[in-house]
Amino acid sequence: MAEFTLPHHHSDVSDALSIKETLDKTGNFTKVAEIFKNLGDSNRLRIFCLLCHREECVIDIAAMVDMTTPAVSHHLKVLKAAGLIISRRSGKEVYYRAADTFEADFLHKAVDKVMDITCPGRVDIE
Amino acid sequence: MAEFTLPHHHSDVSDALSIKETLDKTGNFTKVAEIFKNLGDSNRLRIFCLLCHREECVIDIAAMVDMTTPAVSHHLKVLKAAGLIISRRSGKEVYYRAADTFEADFLHKAVDKVMDITCPGRVDIE
DNA sequence: TTTACAATTAAACGATTGTTTAATTGTTTA
DNA sequence: TAAACAATTAAACAATCGTTTAATTGTAAA
Is this model's pTM higher than 0.85 or not? Predict the structure, then answer.
């Protein structure tokens, strides 16, 4: 990346190189985008938010979000692979809940905040 | 929603109904998921972050993120429709930059935060 | 009014995604 | 061990998405 020049030159060209270099560390942006993508489906988002408020088994999750259990199971797999939720088996049931991590907690707050911004006047969970 | 009962009963069943009702206001979750989806593509995320730091024309954006101009134009359209960026024309060029809104600002900070969490030890822009 | 350049749009494409139905695995109880 | 129930996995499908190439629109300079 020794000789990068912008096709056009308006603002500080000096910054351009360093910004481009940061932008090139695509790995970072890919990771972050992946995380946002996890919450980019409304059903998955509903499940995640539910599991931030209560631990629940798959059948009850399915009942609360009004979906089939295979569909729910699929989304749980995605959220779990992302490290956003954890599970424990108790007898025949598997219970899921939000992971007790800084990331999951931050994302939950971020979702609440974005909902505050975009849906003013809404009624919050509890 | 008068007679909703959970298939199984573990924790407080009383909460279940109110949570389900909140979860049913799907409109809200759809809106929020839509916003996260906008940042759920690494190239679109790179463009958004770039435009949070500097105003730039399409050709230069394309050069900095190493993409074709039609591809960039497509992402700009998505981000603009979401209200995350704005544009102004000056002569032959169209300049884009992050919108000066609470939402765009919050999202920018959220991206930074998530990157801090997931990519520790990274070098920040500027 | 041509010519050149910036940007957008259109059409086509391959790839990914979310859901459904059916089959399978895991666990408990009769 | 057989039957019942919870959960996951598999296969198939339609729908969405991001990128490419080509064509088009918009603006300015020759």
Answer: yes
